[in-house]
Amino acid sequence: MSAPDPGSADPLSLHGVVPPTVTAFDDDGGLDAETTAAHARFVVDRGVHGVFPLGTNGEFALLGPEERDEVVHAVVDEVGEEVPVIAGVGEPATRRTVERARAAERAGVDGVVAVTPYYYPLDGDAAVEHYRTVCAAVDCPVYVYHIPSKTGNDLSLETLDELAEIDNLAGLKDSSKDVPWLGQAVAAHDDLTFLAGSDSLLKPGLDLGCTGMVSAVANAFPELVVDLYEAYNDGDRERAVELQERVYAVRSAIKRGPYMAGVKEALSHRGFDAGPLRSPLRRMDDDDSEALRTELAELGLLE
Predict the structure, then answer these.
(1) Among 27, 118, 223, 236, which has the highest number of CB atoms less than 10 A from its own CB?
(2) Does 145 qualify as catalytic in the annotation?
(3) Is the confidence at residue 78, as pLDDT, over 90?
């Protein structure tokens, strides 16, 4: 039995592995658009099915609007002819989200991903009106990014029922790690595409009906996650379980040190230097970096 099919409301038919690609910076913290594009090339050349710049791993909240535009242009120019590019456009304000969505569409993205507005508490009616406004502002498909641990705003299943009725809303990336919520959401809305947004739930997400995965591990080891998806899609569930276990081990290893430092550090151990994280985020110290190298080597992931 193959992986689940994308929802009928999704014109991109998103599926497979869609990494939340990194944003590269120079040593002074300035945007390095060329290396940002090179990272998109790195994952595409290793078999991923799409890319998602300006997600959490892309440090979107630490970038200004002009920098975000530059990231989108760089990634679209590099890989936009080969795989779908869905760009993050989320902001706390609806007006600013619309501005980012329109700018991304002008840059040539295939779709936009709008994280639930953050900082201020949001009720269901406000969330529905927000997404209705964003979806009406662009012609490309819009995907909801549900990550309540970072936004402080959880979408209820009842609110999702209303969101699903909005024209141009094509799917949802779920990073809530709430398995019952995700299972019920998928079961109720087979017209939408659902993407598992946590490396802890790649194979389980496919079991629940997700058509693919937005995987941080795939930013550094895309081959591993592509192999997992392809094993599942080929009906080899035993192999998919084994590969999910390897993903768990990598996920544990890259959680070492400061928040989100592991992905760029793992990339550096593969010979790809994406520079530092932007302050106030920071990279690992030398001891943590060497410990990570040892763990990854023991897992057979470094040449």
Answers:
(1) 118
(2) yes
(3) yes
